[in-house]
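WARN retry 2 of 3 for item q-0093 after timeout on previous attempt; input resubmitted unchanged.
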Amino acid sequence: MESAKAGAIRRVLITENSGSSLVAFAEVFNGSGIKVEHSRSAEESRHLLRELNFCAYIVVDDLENGSGLDLVRELHRHDDAAPIVLVADITRRRIPLEEVSIGWNGCYILRDKQSNFIQSAHSWIMHALQVVEQERDTSRRGSDSSENRELLRSQRLESVGMLASGIAHDFNNILMAILGNASIAKDKIGRDHEAQRFLNIIEQCAERASALSTSLMRYARGEKSDWIPIYLPDHVDELLNIISTGLPGHVMIEKEFEKVQPVEGDATKLQQVIMNLCLNAGDAMNERKVRSGGQSYMGVLSIGIHPAEPSQQQISQHAVDEQRLSRGFVRMDISDNGIGMNQNTLQTIFRPFFTTKKSGRGLGLSSVQGIIEEQGGFIDVVSEPGVGTTFSVYLPCCENFRDEDSLLSEMLSEPAVLVVESDEEMRRLLALNLQNTDYQVLLVANVDEALAVFLEHQSQISLILIGLAGSLMQSSRDLESLRRVNESTPIVVTTELEREELQPLFEAELATDYVHQPFKPDVLVRVIRDVIRRSGRG
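OK item q-0093 returned
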């Protein structure tokens, strides 16, 4: 084997069965003073490794015997300091993304007709070689090169985003098929069938997956997501039905929700945060049960939502500015009594691609932290091995929320009816139907917006008129959220269901009365006036 010495020829080993990219690779690397060596198989690469030294490696996944990923891992074991690039054909998609974990200096590049993968591979390797050289220099001075490594990690995260954008179209087609078939199945089995609950969960999961796919595509295109006021207790309640199906059977859920101000953010991304933290907690509790050797153990997932005031230490550590402090914060605690973590693990859990799971990708907590910081918040974690872990998410309340509310309070000189209706045309019709009454009309599109208004102006709101959408179970959760704010405010629902089908809502005192759709305007006005008169809130 040739000796490694200062001034020696720098070489990159390119393993590609077809050799179709060799000329282009040679052109860009020769221009950088790096010689290209070529092999057509893993065996040829092993032979060259015995004869020559290489500063970097490129593996094109077109090998006949074995996958390119296997060779990449072998090369990484041979020389864990050298940059490695794995190039995969986007039309083949042979390598699952979750299996690609090849060290801080590894890069996964997709090859298609639109991408200049040769230039991308060259740019990656040249930057990584620079980092390696800097690391050698700084190690002599005792300095730290972690910032450069983090830059490489961020570039690799960008390639993950490109992959997500590339497959989003096909993924959405699959989701459309899931939603369509779930809807047909619900119609076939009838509204009272016990399987309706599970079909509703399938629909909710598919809808959330579609929203997440859209969010990823917006990110890849550099577009800003839509931010809306979000009432966290209601937001979490809605997700728990899905989360519970992904938790081990020995785990129970406890929740403690206080009255809080709405936060402002991307609802889909916040759902991603909540589900990541809860499912991670489930994994930790499942691991503790496995380690207990069959002994009796009950896992507890606790979720708490409270008003919060960051400590001086948190303000300094997370650089919380006065503007966010003036808005106030909401704290969401997600706790488990699982295996816990030691201090060494706690210091690295938010780093991209760090994972303690055998099948983990190391992207979950890194994404969670990024989303929270993007929305103006921060996350803290405390843990003890054998005891459990608590993640505390701090999010700022809606900006200018109090100022807007004070203006609304001045407008509400007369008793008001809060109308909650997701359909824009229906909201317009309801406003027209109620315009000649003695009540001011407040129109909102969903329960999150309704809660934001109702929390601050419950004394001025005489009645809530809400259109039932989705399943009766989902409607019950929406009404429970409103009832938690003020139990005495009457709620009238508009629906196509018959009174007998609404009986569970009346028995639970979630609804005061109802108006059957389609209805005449005078019937709606009569019911509203009668309910307000009986409640004494007119």
